[in-house]
């Protein structure tokens, strides 16, 4: 998500939180790595790692070589080498953790064609960069209108200007291959700058733009998830989720990445269960599986022809019956196994705080002392009748 309060000002510092891009509220920390070595000094004779991680718009990151031995810290705005001209970005990681990140992404430290950092950004660099960033939103509106007029089956999702305003990169998504040669001519004539078209996938588009998921948190792809693994509908079937595309699809239109998070746990638990398409052969009839509770280890079976009557047994009992069926043996019925699972439906609540009464916070009712005193006085005034009067 675009951070409005923490956006960069003219001096290169964030406008809102003033934390130099290390705040934990929004996209300032998009896909960042916590530098847990920041407060640790290097051993004697060890030189600091001369590569730096620099972040650009919408979490785009690259690694640059610090050939000038500049003293850089997280949040510094630097001018970096580009294919043509230079770009402006913000330092997000320095030191030994950059080596770890490069090793994880399989980037070589001895690459002779690696880009380098020129200098810390001057005020003039930041002014040009800010002016170029302000042009991106109105330019995106015009670019989308040009694509609609040419009837191209594509969607321009984002535009990113280079730091020196010499090039504009158009990110777009499309289902099929698009011939945008005529579109580039219109862009170059209208915007008067060098144009680069870059196609991205739907998941990459959601990661760049960001958003709030159905869980109420920011999208995983725009905060910490970097590798996009394929998600199939079998992941939902193993977890016994309803195959509703409206609930299973994310903002990218594909299946949610979080379907893979607990899939391994479900697969390990299902190893002890018999397959749902197996049948149990008993003397009473053939039983078919109707439902499975993975967490409690229960299975529900119904006899063929008696689909309304379900019998609950455990997975161990089902495996036991299957083992007997393999030996050409049959049990009498499922009722003798299901009888052991009769549970008491009465719910018992534990007394956690030592007070069971639900009305313990209500104000107690006041007794009317005057009425009670009057009643006692009347009892005292009444004298018992004599036995003689009773006899009469």
Oligomer: single chain
Low-confidence stretches: 19-27, 387-392
Q: Strand percentage, roughly?
A: 15-25%
Along the chain, the helix and strand elements come as EEEEHEHEEHEHHHHEEEEHHHH
**Distance between the terminal alpha carbons, to the nearest Å?**
102 Å
Count of discrete structural domains: 4
Tally of alpha and pi helices: 11
The helix fraction, in percent, is 25-40%
Concise summary:
This protein is an alpha+beta fold and 392 residues long. The chain is 27% helix and 18% strand. It has 11 helices and 12 strands.
3D architecture notes:
A 5-stranded antiparallel β-sheet has the order 2-1-4-3-5. A 4-stranded antiparallel β-sheet has the order 9-10-11-12. It is elongated. It has 4 domains: 31-38 and 45-121, no CATH class; 128-205, K homology (KH) domain (GMP Synthetase, Chain A, domain 3, 2-Layer Sandwich); 229-271, no CATH class; 272-341, no CATH class. It is of the alpha+beta class. Mean pLDDT is 82; it is low at 19-27 and 387-392. The protein has 11 helices and 12 strands.
Explain the layout of strands and helices.
Layout lengths: L50 E5 L5 E5 L11 E5 L4 E8 L2 H9 L12 E4 L2 H27 L5 E7 L5 E7 L7 H11 L2 E6 L2 H8 L23 H6 L6 H4 L14 H8 L8 E3 L4 E8 L4 E6 L6 E5 H12 L8 H4 L30 H13 L5 H5 L1
Parallel strand pairs: 7-8
Antiparallel strand pairs: 1-2, 1-4, 3-4, 3-5, 6-7, 9-10, 10-11, 11-12
Helix pairs in contact: 2-3
